[in-house]
Design brief:
The protein is an alpha/beta fold and about 180 residues long. The protein is about 40% helix and about 15% strand. Bound molecules: flavin mononucleotide (FMN).
């Protein structure tokens, strides 16, 4: 039986051009099998600062676009660095815009973590995202240590993760969890 294609929406917590978190998301996009598409969100850096007075009729267009992308996605992939033992402000701002809306509850979510460190941000994101009723899929957790490495070293780590099938395995476990829930 042919399975329905799935679309995943990837959210990066770093705005850096040379972000390792973004690089990991791009690597996942490159290994995604036929029938699984991954779009990487480029809206987070353009969101205004969250203000509850600007929800409802006054919701900014970028927030509406982000929310629509999330609504249409079968699952979310989050790759977020740790800043000062916490969630980077820009990423938390994006989450705050989504808290009171109906797009995120029960949406499956996978963490793709690009650092050998940063366990505190994972803990904090888990708390925040669970509070927002997202469905984190723990067995899909993927850690590929790119942070702090040269461009060349990152390419080697990613090539190895691809060769061993680690990237594909994380994605597969996420896809299986999504398919099992529908
Ligand atoms: C302002 C700032 C604060 C940081 N604080 C932490 C931290 O508390 N813990 C940690 O493990 N790394 C910390 N880092 C390192 C980043 O997590 C690391 O550089 C990561 O690669 C950044 O992600 P990116 O490459 O996707 O931009 C910090 C980096 C910056 C710029």
């Amino acid at each position: 039986m042919t399975q329905r294609p799935l679309s995943l929406y990837a959210l990066c917590g770093s705005q850096r051009q040379a972000s390792t978190s973004l690089r990991l998301l791009e690597a996942l996009r490159l290994v995604s099998p036929e029938g699984i598409s991954i779009e990487i969100c480029d809206l987070i850096g353009n969101l205004p600062i969250f203000n509850p007075d600007h929800e409802g009729d006054r919701t900014p267009p970028t927030v509406k676009t982000l929310a629509a992308k999330i609504r249409d996605a079968d699952g979310l992939i989050v790759s977020c660095p740790e800043y000062a033992h916490g969630i980077p402000g820009g990423f938390k701002n994006a989450l705050d815009w989504l808290v009171s809306r109906d797009e995120v509850p029960f949406k499956p979510l996978m963490f793709a973590h690009a650092s050998h460190r940063g366990d505190l941000v994972l803990e904090q994101l888990t708390e925040v995202l669970r509070t927002m009723s997202l469905r984190i899929v723990p067995e899909a957790f993927l850690r590929v240590p790119l942070a702090g490495k040269s461009d060349e070293a990152q390419a080697m780590v990613l090539a190895e993760a691809q060769r061993t099938g680690a990237l594909q395995a994380g994605l597969d476990r996420f896809v299986q969890a999504i398919r099992a829930s529908v």
